[in-house]
Amino acid sequence: MRSIIDSIYKKDDIENIDVMKTPRRIASIYVLIGCLWILFSDRILSMIVIDKNIYSNIQTYKGWFFVFFTAILLYRLILNDCLKIKKLSTDLRRKNIESNNNLIVIEEKNEELQRVINVTNDFFMLTTKILENRYVNDEVFLSETLKIAYNLVKESNVGSAYIVENGKIRFIDAIGFDMESLGKIQITPEEFEYKYNDIKIKNYPELSFKRKIGNHTYEDYSKKNVELKQSIYVGISNEDNLYGGFSLDISKECNVEFSDESIRNLKAFQQLVNGFYKVKKVNDQRNLEQSDIVHAFISALEFHDEYTKGHSEAVALYSLEIGKYLKFDGNQLNDLYWAATIHDIGKIIIPQSILNKSDKLTKEEYEHVKQHTQIGYDILSKADSLRDVSKYVLLHHERWDGTGYPVGLKGEEIPLISQIIAVADSWHAMTSDRPYKRGITKDEGIEELKNNKGSQFAPHIVDVFLEILLKETD
């Protein structure tokens, strides 16, 4: 490393010497000529000129000769160096221009890279929701897909998205178009005239930049007509079954066309979207099946215990409020809602005489009631779509101090969702009327939560719920 530094310093020294070389050379020449003139000019003149009068005249103008002679010599030397400097300056200016052009290219590439990164990130977030089994509305999915594709294809400056319903196409979102007018258009998928598993590029005649939708132009539907130069239609489909799609367009005033790169990117993007849309439909069906199963269970329990209907829904809503306050994501809120909704499903096997008994339960009856958490778990864990939430149902009667049932978990050993359901469940049970008892007041219920905070209930969940109740009062 030291030798490298030394070599750099030596190189710098050489460059500094080169910088001083020209003025030193000119000064040296001037001194040399001056000394030679002073020392030898008289001798040379005396040897050449014999006539004293001529010699005397030459002596008078000798200094002028020296000035003109050295001026011409120095002029030539300086001119030569100036030409070199000018050439170097021109080369340097050319290099600067090239460097600036390279910087512009690099900045454009960086902007392009950042745009691709943003598009990738947006698509990743959308697909993550789907893969996490979170419900994403079809319109939201297609609208987000339009925005991602719009950012992916830099040439486009307008676009629209549509969904297929009952054999008709309905526009759901637009960029640059009049959405109100597009919303009135209803045509069949066949009128789009392109294959569902491919994309179609439409070039508009030079004298007619009208966007054709079916047998009509966009002008027929809106006074806010957008005249187009080129369009790309992209379908979201499963083989020959069209679900929806989007178009990207270039308005006529833009001096660009869709590049081959953009078309290739869109084709790849279409394949990705088609694949993830199939996953989405499977997840939507799974969520629908889960909802149907839960409501079937609740309906069966309502026949057995009429109180359950209002209680289950109230506990689910209270639980959701707590989950939102804790900033649960969509997947967590989904699990929390269904677990809270169905937390008492195990009571379906508890005799009505015990569930509605007005007197204090016997030890045997209480042990029988306690079995409802385990029975609920056994029922729910058999269903694939409810297996994940079954553990929260099993543990919603665990206590913070470890004296709960059926396992006897303590503190943070209890799943957070079960901690939330425990508070919401107890609150509604305390403050609502039952056939055999009258509910306590809101203030009395708050005191009960405070008194049992840290023993029966998780302290931080009680604190959150009390803040929610306080906001409701305000």
Automatic annotation (TrEMBL):
<feature type="transmembrane region" description="Helical">
    <location>
        <begin position="61"/>
        <end position="79"/>
    </location>
</feature>
<dbReference type="InterPro" id="IPR003607">
    <property type="entry name" value="HD/PDEase_dom"/>
</dbReference>
<protein>
    <submittedName>
        <fullName>HD-GYP domain-containing protein</fullName>
    </submittedName>
</protein>
<dbReference type="InterPro" id="IPR037522">
    <property type="entry name" value="HD_GYP_dom"/>
</dbReference>
<keyword id="KW-0472">Membrane</keyword>
<keyword id="KW-1133">Transmembrane helix</keyword>
<keyword id="KW-0812">Transmembrane</keyword>
<feature type="domain" description="HD-GYP">
    <location>
        <begin position="286"/>
        <end position="474"/>
    </location>
</feature>
<feature type="transmembrane region" description="Helical">
    <location>
        <begin position="29"/>
        <end position="49"/>
    </location>
</feature>
<dbReference type="Pfam" id="PF13487">
    <property type="entry name" value="HD_5"/>
</dbReference>
